[in-house]
Write a structure and sequence with these properties.
3 strands; alpha+beta
């Protein structure tokens, strides 16, 4: 007899970006899920050399992620598509189809506007599919 085991990932680190200032706040979570501020980073305080390396690092991951889990021509097409999007000035491109994309901040804002019972039900539903808020 085989027993199915479902595991929900526990969030250990979180990164929040202030949209106005660009300052990044890094947080860690304890075993009970309590957030603890770890550090803040203002990219404008970094040297030009470090900023340049960070840009290159980010672009490598952005383009590389587009081709992850793909191979051959499908990977080539994904890479070309993202490079073209970036050159056209678009960081995010909406996918066609039934995909819904929402930032964690948007989701948290929507949950906070709900009644406590409705928010708890929504969080439980999200947790059931592996999305822990």
């Amino acid at each position: 007899m085989t027993e199915e085991v479902t595991e929900t990932r526990t969030k250990r680190v979180d990164k929040l970006v202030d949209e106005e200032t660009g300052v990044i706040t890094f947080r860690a979570f304890d075993d009970d899920g309590n957030a603890m501020d770890a550090a803040t980073l203002d990219p404008s305080e970094l040297s030009d050399d470090v900023q340049e390396k960070a840009v290159i690092h980010g672009l490598l991951y952005k383009v590389g992620n587009a081709a992850s889990n793909k191979s051959g021509q499908e990977a080539v097409d994904a890479i070309v598509k993202v490079v073209e999007q970036l050159k056209a000035g678009n960081w995010n491109v909406r996918r066609q189809g039934n995909t819904v994309k929402m930032s964690k901040e948007e989701l948290t804002e929507k949950l906070s506007s709900m009644t406590p019972e409705a928010a708890a039900n929504a969080k439980a539903a999200l947790a059931a599919i592996g999305i822990v808020i």
